[in-house]
Amino acid sequence: MADKLKLTLDQLLCFSVYSTGHAFNRIYKPLLDKVGLTYPQYLVMVVLWQEDRQTVRGIGSKLFLESNTLTPLIKRLETAGLVTRERDRDDERQVRVALTNQGRSLQDQAADVPGCVVEACGMNLDDLVDLNRKLARLRNALEQSAP
Amino acid sequence: MADKLKLTLDQLLCFSVYSTGHAFNRIYKPLLDKVGLTYPQYLVMVVLWQEDRQTVRGIGSKLFLESNTLTPLIKRLETAGLVTRERDRDDERQVRVALTNQGRSLQDQAADVPGCVVEACGMNLDDLVDLNRKLARLRNALEQSAP
DNA sequence: ATAATTTATATCGCGCACGATTTAATCGCG
DNA sequence: CGCGATTAAATCGTGCGCGATATAAATTAT
Hints:
3-stranded antiparallel beta sheet; globular; homodimer; DNA-binding; mainly alpha; 3 strands; Arc Repressor Mutant, subunit A
């Protein structure tokens, strides 16, 4: 009977995750504005900097996103001259995304971004790494649980 | 020189937060579909269940959102018959959002949602509470850091 | 009291997320 | 080999987030 009265925002882990995500976005915004990227676009670039010439599906599997989100986003990166998109010769269903020279050189221009963000977190590195690992575990459990 | 090679997605705390947020959304979706709410709409309802007749600004300060996001969202809740919106008599700038009977009764229909989500997390309650507290602290630090 | 400033909401445009559907290429099975 | 099933992208519609701007009410300063 008193159960329903106990539901507050602060108790919801999902809300902490949700609101922290927005807070990160607000930190990233001015940093990424300088290189002309949105946060999701930055993530795609990070994935490509890590390994060039990936398929849309491959990029999506790392970001937990699908082509309905990625196709328009990557087209914007293409328009910005950061990547190229071309059908895979061996499997014409797939589109391979490759960095341009401009896309590669952007990595240097954005090199200080992660450090700025870490600083804004105001935590020591060990706690940060620990939190990161716990969240990744939680995400995997939730993805597992979703059908 | 080897620094740039070390930037991987897994190391980015922001990405763990970002992807965990999406994962939560995927868990919530089928649960909230049953009561006809989106996740942000659910959060507004939680805030109103906690305290009825709040202003848009008041709701926003709890959710870290502003009127540009909330006004259309709350209008949808109004269209759904869950809340009413009316100008405050004492300060006509403010809009006060109040639950309808239908909006109040929705709390019972959604009463099992938090429990289902906690279960999907696959963590014991202590760890969950601890993670929640750490994230809230991080969010507050980030909000502090953003000008 | 009137003007300048601040505050609360609303509006608009853009870029995600994502469910649903479409199209085209590949695979698998008889 | 051929044909149904699967797979990869793309497209479309809806609802956030949010920067920028607008409008109107209240507050402050002069």
